[in-house]
Amino acid sequence: MLRRGNDSRYHLLVAISLLFILNEPDLQ
């Protein structure tokens, strides 16, 4: 159960990171 919760948090972090990357093309 704890592992599932951590996985969900990880996915959320990845989604946020992707949003930031898509919103800031200057980084590339």
Helix content: over 70%
Oligomerization: single chain
Largest sheet: none
Question: What's the β-strand tally?
Answer: 0
Low-confidence stretches: none
Q: Sum up the overall morphology in one term.
A: rod-shaped
The Cα radius of gyration reads 12 Å
- Give the integer mean of the pLDDT values: 81
Q: In whole angstroms, how far apart are the ends?
A: 37 Å
Strand content is under 5%
Specify the structural class.
mainly alpha
* Strand and helix order: H
SS element count, helices = 1
A few lines on this structure:
The chain has one helix at 2-23. With 28 residues, the protein is mostly helical.
Describe the 3D structure.
Helix content is 79%, strand content 0%. It has one helix spanning 2-23. It contains one helix and no strands. With 28 residues, it is an all-alpha fold. The protein starts with a helix and ends in a 5-residue tail after the last helix.
Secondary-structure topology with pairs:
Elements: H1 2-23
Structural key phrases:
single chain, 28 residues, mainly alpha, 1 helix, rod-shaped
